[in-house]
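Hallway conversation turned thread

IA: we were arguing at lunch whether anyone had actually written out Heat shock 70 kDa protein 12A end to end. Turns out nobody had. So, for the record, here is the sequence (759 residues) and right after it the structure tokens. Reply here if something looks off.
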Amino acid sequence: MRTNTSKPFNTFLDNHSDEDSSSSSSSSSSEHNSTCRSEGHSISEIDVENLDESEDTEKTTKDQSCGKKQNEKAEVIEVLESSFQSCSETTPRSIDTDSHSLETASQRLDIANPLPDVIDLDQSPSTNADVNEALKTLDNIILEVSADTPTMESETKQHQGHLVVVAIDFGTTYSGYAFSFTRDPSHVYMMRKWEGGDPGVVSEKTPTSILLTPDGQFHSFGYSARNNYHDLDPDQARSWMYFDKFKMILHTTPELSKDTLIKATNGKLYPALTVFGLALKYFKDHALQELSDQSGMKIVNEDVRWVISVPAIWKASAKQFMRQAAYEAGLISHESPDQLLISLEPEAASIFCRKLKMYQLVPELNEGKPIRSPKFASEEAMDMNPACETLKEESRYMVVDCGGGTVDITVHQVDKGEKLIELYRASGGPYGSVGIDIEFEHVLDKIFGKELMEHYRQKCPMGWVDLMVAFESKKRSANPDKSSPLNVSLPFSFIDYYKRHKFGSLEHAIKKFGDKEIQWSRLGMLRLSPEAMRRLFIPTMEKIKQAIGDVLNNRGTRDLQYLFLVGGFSESPILQQEIRREFGSLLKVIIPQGVGLSILKGSVQFGLDPTIVHVRKSRMTYGVGVLNKFKEDQHPAEKRMVAGDTEWCMDVFDKYVLTNQPVALGDVILRSYKPANQNQKKIQLSIYFTENPNTNFVTDAGVQKCGVLTLDLEESSQTKLSRREIQTRMIFGETEIRLSALDVCTGRRVHATIDFLSN
């Protein structure tokens, strides 16, 4: 979408228009930059230095209270650990709190002076391009800053206040959680088995389905929601709200906001934030209850570090939406935002797959060959030996996460200390297993009529759910090595509905369709041959193969040795066979046993050590729209505007980071902003993104507005408002961006937020 909004002049004032102000600002900024460079401190630590001593006292009291609570419950850990059955195939790495920290960008760059006010990029030093080369951001959410926002250096130390890490895999089709105790990070435990599962389908997850009463109250989730909805009287079902596979709305909604609505199976609209919040609250309550039951004592929310996994290709608004839902669910509060970590699904899978053993892999069909890398053809031993003998320092591999809604692809290289470096920005698309459901729906439309099927969904929502549940079971069990047909049960309500509205039989409609691979069973079933089922997979698999091929054809992804296939959709033998057939000659395709749990287990390990992935690539180019001093030899005439005695260029795209640019944990980018007039109470800047790193103006094609940065100002008795400088510091390289702001004149913190849901 092309954005044509120009930035009003009165939002900014040139930081260099006043020599005294510029000199003062430069001195203050240099002092803070020096602190960041020499000590490697994160933003939050620098900002706190000039706060009142009362804040330090409050922090000390909080730490003491947290330590006391830890001592009270530490003795219970051994009881908790002995109460759970360990996942023997999981071997996560231990936390190394003494691991070497990556030097920040401000350490790597010799910045003699602070960055100038972004209003006047023309007076920026020539090293500004170098700064952009070293600093970049992710397409992630930016949380509201509070006094308790954790610093980068203290990130791994935050576990001192948590007894357990609980990771929630909120999937499109199925969801679940796993956990590990911070004193025993080598063991990851799965939740208790879910009751009421699909016949013949063994799953350690539950369907992502939620049932609400007619007045919007939570009733049930997962298998319970599905079964309760099925048992409702048909007339009641029309007023109850049943949602399933609703996660994708966060990816497909063009302008996602806190007010976005979601449609239930009966056609009713309800706030999506409420639905997601209720779902997360269910997992929170379920996990806390399970931990409490097993330990014999009450485990409360403050004891838990929560982790929620999301697709890496999600936009910033979708990721912020999940964090906002976590607030709604009570997982975190604005006083403790650090209690939640957002993990990226392919990263989590990569963390888990690094430590796989040979016995934990799905064997190749019809082959007895040992698994080995075609690039390094040495034989690899079986059993307890690592799956990848060559997965050592500088080894490169691809992770393809095929889920219910999306496919995420990431490429990693093993760095020193077993850390991971992202070599290519996360890619993929909406190519998950729901695409097979859509193909099946198209077949039904062709056989029985699209209009009739749409009416049936509306009039008999329960029957439609039953029909798709029956298909889901057959889809998951489809195997290319089996020749027997797959029978999909058709609900009696559908058979009756068709007879009443078409005045004919289903058998006649199927025969008239004329596909020999699709037949009618007199037992009331739609019989699909293995070939008919495979045809439903083909469109989605072709998109997945194209996405993988695009990554392999990039110059930055050469010399890859392995392809790890993970995610719930990767459980399908049909998909496994196709990926191995297509790419097996280029690199070794490795599929873990229990492939659908890879992300869940890896997310737990990420929660125990968030620094494992210490260099990432930006998916987009991000920046803000500003005014710049007009130069005839650089700026187009149509962008020229005059205010007072100064000529300005409108809509300049001040880029923070560039597409596919590497950024490390702790990398910091500085910007200074100044009130345009003495009565100004806040500074607001529109944030834009684009895939093209060479974009110059926010009105260029392909540039979209994605959020707003707000700096709240307060009266200052030490200096005139017109001379004040507000310096923002952003830390990039995590799965989320950390933001803080400082009034350079007073040394006090400025309330700063970035909102991607108010576009």
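OS: looked through it. The CA atoms of residues 366 and 481 lie 9 Å apart.
IA: good, adding that to the notes. The chain is about 30% helix and 25% strand.
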